[in-house]
Specification:
single chain, alpha/beta, Rossmann fold, 7 strands, RNA_MeTrfase_RsmD, SAM-dependent_MTases_sf, 16S rRNA (guanine(966)-N(2))-methyltransferase activity, transferase
Length: 188
């Protein structure tokens, strides 16, 4: 597993042993960031200079890829101890300590945000209906900016009902389905 593009291109990332953490594959991350960068609803500003939240962060691959491509700051949320060790090591290896924060907790218990994020990655364990619950908790704590892009990775065939959120794209990649949603609010 490595960073695909940007200033950290080629940097190898570590993952904890076992199957508790399921990092997003390099080819899926490449497809996701290509879509964000080139879609009519996306573009460079979907990533560059954005405040990003990487929920269910695991190794931090999604958030670190965003930082590599010009995001301003990423808040990583992860509760698994082994994943947290790998996440912190990956942040340090990329020298992104000053552009990141790690919240070692369940995403349902995040504290109030100082400033909302314009890009949110959610890659929870499949089949548990965690995306809607995470979005509700993040909304309540002020983490989701109006018209923010929400990227949710779910299991293939897993339903995702998000009333009020506009689905902009859906792509299947083997066992994973990526969905990009826009939060309610005015697009600036």
């Amino acid at each position: 597993m490595r960073i695909i593009a940007g200033r950290h291109r080629g940097r190898k990332l570590i993952a904890p042993a076992g199957d508790a953490t399921r990092p997003t594959a390099d080819r899926v991350r490449q497809a996701l960031f290509d879509m964000l960068w080139h879609a009519p609803w996306g573009g460079r500003m979907a990533i560059q200079d954005q405040l990003v939240l990487d929920g269910f962060a695991g190794t931090g691959a999604l958030g670190l890829e965003a930082l590599s491509r010009g995001a301003d700051h990423v808040t990583f949320v992860e509760k698994d101890a082994a994943a947290l060790a790998a996440l912190r090591a990956n942040i340090a290896a990329c020298r992104e300590d000053s552009h990141s924060a790690v919240l070692a907790m369940d995403i349902a218990r995040v504290p109030r945000a100082m400033v909302p994020c314009g890009l949110v990655f959610l890659d929870p364990p499949y089949g548990q209906g965690l995306v809607p619950r995470a979005v509700a908790a993040l909304e309540a704590a002020g983490w989701i900016a109006p018209a923010a892009l929400i990227v949710a990775e779910t299991g293939a065939g897993e339903a995702l009902a998000m009333p009020g959120y506009e689905e902009l794209a859906e792509r299947s990649h083997g066992a994973a389905t990526l969905r990009v949603l826009r939060a309610p609010g005015v697009v600036c």
